[in-house]
Amino acid sequence: MSKTMDADPNSAHRRAWDLIPWVVNGSASEDERRLVERHAEDCADCREEFDFQCQLRDGMAPRTAPAALDADHALGRFWGRVDAEQTGSLWDKLATQPPASPTAPAEHQRRGRWQTAMIAAVLVQALGLAALLGVLWERPRGAEYQVLSQPPAGMADIRLVPAPGLSLGELHALLDRHELQLLQANADATHFALGLRPGAGLGVAEAVQRLRAEPGVLLAEPLTPPKP
After folding, report:
1. Distant-in-sequence, close-in-space partners of 13: CB < 8 Å, separation ≥ 6
2. Burial of residue 192, with CB atoms counted within 10 A of its CB: 0-12 exposed, 13-18 middle, 19 or more buried
3. What is the tens place of the pLDDT at every residue in 135-180?
């Protein structure tokens, strides 16, 4: 039976295609790697997919020593962007303006109040996004009760590369829809390691398939090879 399946071109193509992520991330066996390489010599689709995933892997490789992104580091990067792009420019304008005199026109006073309100709005927005980021990081620690049949908490099951336009709110909703929790991210928050929440009603393979159907997901792949 297995010989018949191996002789079937469609079966061989399906097997090689499914093994590409494991070859790219280095977890495939030597035999599996050779199988993909031999098949890709004659299959343009698999060759193109293999090259694409290699480009993604190379693009996600950290330029410095790898380190898990914690909430404090992410918040620091966020405040840096706020200071450089928004808040800093408004404060600079206020700092260079002369103090208003009692005889200053009402229009000048209104402009000063408007700029102060803009600064406050930027700060409120920043605090809201920072709070959401903190919630995303704290959620995996919430489950304190665990039965013996459950896997250890905190183990990453899925690698996710979101589309560039995916917002934090959309990411939060996506994790809720598919019963996932955020465990790790790279320094630029361009790809994430996800885990199934305790008591999730789906497995890793099903979660990966659902993520691949999401318009805001560029790449979703399991971090552990499928069981034979």
Report:
1. 39, 43, 45, 46
2. buried
3. 455 444 444 333 333 444 457 889 999 988 888 888 889 999 999 9
Domain locations along the chain: 2-60, 71-98+105-140, 151-222
In this structure, CATH architecture of domain 151-222: 2-Layer Sandwich (3.30)
Give 52-104 pLDDT, tens digit per residue.
Answer: 888 877 766 554 444 444 555 665 666 666 555 554 444 455 455 555 555 55
